[in-house]
Amino acid sequence: MMKTVGLTLSLAILLTLAGCDRSPKTPAPGASQGPAEVRLGYFANVTHAQAVLGVASGEFADAVKPAKVTTRVFNAGPSLIEALFAGEIDIGYVGPGPALSAQVKSKGQGIRLVAGAAANGVLIVARKDSGIEKLADLKGRKLATPQLGNTQDIAARHYVVSVLKQADASNVVPVVNGEQASLMARGQIDAAWAPEPWGSRLIAEAGAKLIGKEEDLWPNKEVNLTVVVTTPEFLAKYPQVVEKMLRVHRNWTQRLTSEPQKHAVALNDALGGLTGKKLALGIVESSLKNVKFTDDPLDETLATMGQWAFELGFLVKQPELKGFADLTLLRRLQAEK
Q1: In terms of domains, do 138 and 239 share one?
Q2: Residue 337: per-residue pLDDT
Q3: Under DSSP, is residue 243 helix (H, G, I), strand (E, B) or coil?
Q4: Do residues 242 and 234 touch, judged by C-beta distance below 8 A?
């Protein structure tokens, strides 16, 4: 009798473990029922336009009915990753830096990249009376980024240490996007490494001047800026839901690629609703010109960003990219006519 019970328990454990490792190609039993709620996290940025417009248009909500879509807006990636790990969101739009950090911290067990979202779209701007005319002039100057350890923060710190040869990156200071204009106006920061629309907003509202674009510092003039992530558990349990969300994401990617300016007004309205302040339409239109919307996660830039984060001490080891991305559902959607 004890032997039978032991065998039964062993079989149950094996079946449970096998269920946890299911790929999206083999939906878990009951997965078609879907969750009662799909919790989506993203930023009020032009670089997260698919999320902003997918929510504002109601397309995400329609796609996953009868489940309810609830949203949470973040300032930068590290906060979003904390929420993902805490089980407070299911799917998120985030920069590659925090996503790679999550991969290392969870030992490859806590996050899955399921699609790319945006590339480029980061402006490096300087206060008009700062005396900064070119990137080399940033050496030793007070340089703002959105949050410690976010994608722009990692890039800026790498630049001042590895390219400008500073002894450290202590002049790089995390400042919430929405607060950078006032600090720049008071002379408390000299420059900003800013994702759109914040870079264009600093130019339009604070009189800042453009001194460079991050993409120009990369070999192929292209750098990953935003990816779509979820947890392995949510992906395994609800692959149909993730696929439906990705279909909406892809539709918006295609629209923003083919006719970006056509959606400037809707995007501006949606961003205004999230931030409480509508931008001048010209800022959004300018921002859209600086962002490349793409489903491609740009693996080569992910590897480089992971190396930088390790060298700067944000990661205890270089991230293992094997298993980090699961593009099964994305490839299926890409194959559709």
Answers
A1: no
A2: 67
A3: helix
A4: yes
Report the CATH number that the domain containing residue 61 is assigned in CATH. Answer: 3.40.190.10
- For β-strands 172-174 and 91-94, DSSP reports them as unpaired
Q: Is the pLDDT of residue 75 over 90?
A: no
Predicted structure pTM score: 0.84
| DSSP H helix total and E strand total for the chain | 14, 11
Closest CA to 142 of 74, 199, 191: 191
User: Do 247 and 192 share a domain, yes or no?
Assistant: no
User: What's the domain count of the chain?
Assistant: 2
Q: Is 44 helix (H, G, I), strand (E, B) or coil?
A: coil
Structure-token pair, residue 40: 């989506």
d(CA 224, CA 308): 14
DSSP symbols for 264-314: HHHHHHHHHHHHSSPPPHHHHHHHHHHEEE-S---HHHHHHHHHHHHHTTS
